[in-house]
Amino acid sequence: MGSNSTSNSRTKCTDLQMPFQYSLYATTYILIFIPGLLANSVALWVLCRFINKKNKAIIFMINLSVADLAHVLSLPLRIYYYISHHWPFQRVLCLLCFYLKYLNMYASICFLTCISLQRCFFLLKPFKARNWKRRYEAGISVVIWVIVGTACLPLPILRNQDLANNTESCFADLGLQPISMAFSIGLITVAEMGGFVLPVVIITYCTWKTRKSLQEFQVPSENTKERKRALWMVLMCAVVFIVCFTPYHINFPFFMMVKQNVFSNCSFIKSTLCFHIISLCLANLNCCLDPIVYYFMTSEFRDQFSEHGGLVLQSCVRCKDSNLAIRQRKEDLQTISLECLDDSKAM
């Protein structure tokens, strides 16, 4: 009797409803969509067209921007679902949006780590950096996409079975497919070690080494500015990582254990599920925070954006001035024609 009571209690606690998640998800995605779309579109345009090909971490930044933009473009479908509570589209589209969310998260983690590591390497080993080829970045980026893309495949697959039974449900309303404890432990280990612990160690080390080099070495003023830029970029990568991805990965093992019915305390289960929802919202903020890495921490991006952005503004002002001049000329011609008509009538 006692074991049945505990099992029923776990089932009841696991099936707790979180009605606030719909409004929270919808609000978060609405607030992220426009800034994320504009910022990443402009960033991708500037990175691809107006930055010298020899600049540092350019390939990693482009890939990071592509990952963010892919997720941002799926947000309208998520907004529609969390407002209407209805999924009228095909099942594969739901799984694709679900897949892009986690693909963006772990691709962003990897590329932020690569940006920090490369920036630190170029600063500390300037002579070796001269032999660095752009094809190295391209090769590393391809490897990252293949590994991350493959590692994220189980996440939508675990939701596929429930989606087949509930064709009008998607995203947060999809339950996890029953999995063994061994598979759950393996999933947690891969996600935590590869997607959190290792990147945290690398970014922390790069931040420490960059800051240490700035404090210890007596270098010319120009080199000092370069070191400060490198430090700020690494720090910004760390801030994005801490704000967006740390809460989710701290809670993820507990969330998986809740889904495996390991805990029986209802308040703890409810807190874990609530924090999971909040941490997912924080994880989506990286789509808006990543462009700050390009603009504020990369002098080349800032200079090129300001230069070409200024040209666009100047052209807009010139177009406006020319339109005003044309309108003024039309008004003058109308005035002259009316005066001529009045003179003809008077004669």
TrEMBL record:
It is a multi-pass membrane protein. This is P2Y purinoceptor 10. Residues 39-294 form the G-protein coupled receptors family 1 profile domain. The keyword Glycoprotein applies. The chain crosses the membrane at residues 24-47, 59-83, 103-124, 136-158, 178-208, 229-248, 268-296. It comes from Echinops telfairi (Lesser hedgehog tenrec). It holds the Pfam family 7tm_1. The keyword Glycoprotein applies. It is found in: Membrane. Keywords: G-protein coupled receptor, Glycoprotein, Membrane, Receptor, Transducer, Transmembrane, Transmembrane helix. Its main location: membrane. InterPro entries: GPCR_Rhodpsn, GPCR_Rhodpsn_7TM. SUPFAM superfamilies: Family A G protein-coupled receptor-like.
